[in-house]
Structure formats: structure tokens, C-alpha cells
Amino acid sequence: MAISRIRIAKDKGELVQALVDFNGATGPFQTYADVMAFAAALGAKLKKRVPLSIISKEPAPISLEIFISRGYDTLIKLLAIAETKDPKILSVYEAEAEAQRVEIFEEYANGGLERLRDEVRGAVDYSDRLLLLLSNERLPEEPSQEEFDLSRFL
Hints:
2 strands, mainly alpha
């Protein structure tokens, strides 16, 4: 059985490279796997799953073993079970189940990368924009329940 690889959409390849602290870029993430895991979690939170069309050559598809070594296999499995509601998707004996888990992860990551691309557009320092995004998600603004009533000042 071939080792699965996590693919990146071609239109998101430059963004993924820019988000990694490597080769002159000063991104907030250490590896491509870190970027993809963050993007997949963001895509799942937003319920945004976008199929990949054209696959990026650079960065090249990332071996699933890298995700496993960094502990992201749990995220991949959680996203798959939450999406399918079928415990059979966790089977380690079925290549089809693994391929389906990888596809779900890739699509959520692609959706998350779309949102990240919108958030960091025009930014010089991506770290600041990501912190703002996380802060807004953690502490969302509460809309006021009632309108301001000027009649009490009359």
C-alpha cells in the first residue's frame, strides 16, 4: 500500500509557502504540515469544505507520515468521523478509508486556506493578522440586543 500524501491546491501554494518560516519567508508556522493542519481546523470551524482542482507542484504533496509524526493524525481522524458519522472511516486496514480521510482533510484545509488568503491579503506580517483572526474567534463581538433609545433624553 502506497503512503498517502496531503495535496495542496495550486492557487494556495504561494500562500502556504509564505506562511512558513523558511527560505527567507518569515511566516508564523514551522512546516507546511503545520499550515495545513491550522487551515483544516479553520475550514472545519467555518464548515467550509472546498474540493481541490489543480494540485500544486511547489510545495509538493506532503507525506501523511509527517502529519502523524507531528500528532495531526488525530485531527485528520476527528474531521473524518465528524464529517461522515461513520466509525468505519477510522479503519487502518482499508486503503479506501484512509483515502477518504485524506480527501476530507485536504478539502477542509483548502477551505481554511481560502479564508486565510482573504484575511492576510495586503498584510506585511502574517503573524499579526493571524493573531487578530484568532482573537476575533475567541472573543466575538456581541451584538447589542436593543437599539439606542434617544427618547429618554427628551
